[in-house]
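Format is sequence with structure; example below:
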Amino acid sequence: MTTGRAARAATVHDHVALAEIEMCGELIIAASMADEERLSADRIDEVLKVYDAEESRGRP
């Protein structure tokens, strides 16, 4: 039997794993649609919605 703490840890871990799988899927889709052989670092950041703090001002 799992304890409450173990169950919460598993739920958080599953949530993180699902988020990572979704990000990988987004990258695969972007790579398959790209004209270039490789995605640029800027394009990867765009796909993963990673922005610098200064750049993110005004972004949703």
Observations:
- Residues 22-60 form one domain.
- The chain is about 65% helix and 0% strand.
- Residues 22 and 28 are 10 Å apart (CA to CA).
